[in-house]
Amino acid sequence: MIGCSCGVCTSTDPRNKRRRSSLYVVTEHKHIVIDTPPDFRDQVLSFGVKRVDAVFLTHPHADHIYGFDDVRRFSSMQEEHIPVYGQPRTIKQMRKKFDYVDRISYGFESVPRVLFTGMNQSVYLDEVRITPLPVSHGMDQIYGYLFEGDEKKLAYIPDCNGIPKETFQYLENLDVMILDGLRPDPHPTHFSINECVDHLCKINAKQSFITHLTHHSDHHDLQEQLGDVVTVPWDGLEIEL
Fold first, then answer.
1. What single string gives the DSSP state of each residue in 161-211?
2. Were both Cys, which of 54, 101, 137, 196 would link to 142 (CB 3.0–4.6 Å)?
3. By the 8 A CB rule, do 238 and 25 touch?
4. pTM, whole model, 2 decimals?
5. Domain 127-233: assigned CATH number
6. Contact in structure between 174 and 194 (CB atoms under 8 Å)
7. Residue 106 binned pLDDT confidence (cut-offs 50, 70, 90)
8. Integer Rg of the chain from CA
9. Are the C-beta atoms of 217 and 190 separated by less than 8 Å?
10. Strand runs (DSSP E) across 63-107, as ranges?
11. In Å, what is the CA distance from 25 to each residue of 141, 175, 186?
């Protein structure tokens, strides 16, 4: 947290050094990014990401999209347009906030070469099915995503303060569930840690993770509090399914 000298912000535990939320999913043939936060460039450099075949956006808030310009390095290296999926309203905002992307006057390496695609149902990328999961984020309805392939299922909902019944039905028999749990105290647009844990227990995935944590939670202390029920992840954590 900028300007903060609390115990978490000054911690020497690398697990307390948290970038903004993002996920990188690698399948047999595809490399998929979920959200491009302001830390995106640092994330892909730190963790050796060398290819992006598709981008999925949960919503157009600044902390989830303002690293988007660095997608251009991938479209340039791969010499192809990269599909970018999101809720139609999100895609509309992306075209507005990054209006230069569609200008043909720029060279291929000058801007992200992408194919903006509004989605309201599942899409397939080779062997992987990706389904949007509508959830509440304050007064807005935004997306999480469900990934299915090779008889494995992973769901990712990084921003949320409510999961409707229609979405809950997609969260059965999951191998991995990653869910928003911002801080100990209640928040108007995010689950608190207790609310997150309650929902993770209801979902009952084989592996459960809390994400989008603030500096109000020390990694070690929170993990001790949650025990074996929920895992507190850290930047660069890899899960193999």
1. SB--HHHHTTSSS-SEEEEE---SS--SSS--HHHHHHHHHHH--SEEEEE
2. 137
3. no
4. 0.96
5. 3.60.15.10
6. no
7. confident
8. 18
9. no
10. 82-86
11. 24, 14, 30
The three-state secondary structure class of 104 is: coil
HSE toward the beta carbon, residue 54, CA cutoff 13 A: 18
pLDDT reading at 43 higher than 90:
yes
Give the pLDDT band (50/70/90) at residue 154.
Answer: very high
Contacts of 16 (CB under 8 A, 6+ apart): 8, 9, 215, 218, 219
> Token match 């949650």: residue?
226
Which of 172, 179, 53, 36 is closest to 123 using CA atoms?
A: 53
DSSP, collapsed to helix, strand or coil, labels residue 228 as coil
- pLDDT for residue 102: 82
From 3.40.50.410, 3.60.15.10, 3.50.50.60, 3.40.50.360, which CATH number describes the 21-120 domain? 3.60.15.10
Q: Using CA atoms, how far apart are residues 71 and 77, in angstroms rounded to an integer?
A: 10
Answer whether 130's CB lies under 8 Å from 144's CB.
no
Top-confidence residue, 40 or 107: 40
How far apart (Å, rounded) are the C-alpha atoms in residues 36 and 38?
A: 7
User: Matching CATH topology for 21-120 and 127-233?
Assistant: yes
Q: Where in the chain are the domains?
A: 21-120, 127-233
User: Strands 128-137 and 140-149, how do they pair?
Assistant: antiparallel
Place of tokens 């043939």: 29
